[in-house]
Amino acid sequence: MPMDKPNSIALIIIGILSFMASKISTAMIIVFVFMILDYVTGIMALYVTGKDFDKKIAFKGIIKKLAYGLFLFMALCIDAVIFEKTSLMGVSLGFPIFTDATTIYILGTEGLSLISNLKKCGVNIPSWMAKPFELMIGAVKRAFNVKV
User: Residue 144 and residue 114: Cα distance in Å, rounded?
Assistant: First the structure.
């Protein structure tokens, strides 16, 4: 008996989530928390600055957060393939380099955005607080010798 499309899609999503759940690190959980906090503080900043809430912009923000999740999933997949294939050759990389780099990069960008939103809400944040997030982004760029 063939499955209908919603059930097939649900099974694919469950499979992806199961794969990711087995790979989730503390840093990834922090990234997801930062994404939620960034979204919430963005809405708070709108209110404080007197700007109108725009559903289209808010929806684009949600899409961006979901895209970051897909970006992270892509890194997990790359690492899974690399680990599987290198282990067949008797080589071990020791850690998931693309997953870690992606997690660090997203954490850096979300952290800077969160700080920006909090400043718009009137929170006096010292300049040194942004430094760790800037260092995260810079470290990933240097490690892969890329401009993002």
Answer: 25
In a domain, 10, yes or no: no
Average pLDDT of 70-75?
91
1: in domain: no
Distance CA 44, CA 53 (A): 10
Domain presence at residue 5: no
Token pair of 93 as six digits? 């990389």
SS (H, E, C) 76-124: HHHHHHHHHHHHHCCCCCCCCHHHHHHHHHHHHHHHHHHHHHHHHCCCC
Measured distance CA(148)–CA(8) in Å, rounded: 36
CA-nearest of 91, 114, 90, 96 to 35 is: 114
Question: Per-residue pLDDT tens for 107-134?
Answer: 999 999 999 999 999 999 999 999 999 9
Global pTM value: 0.79
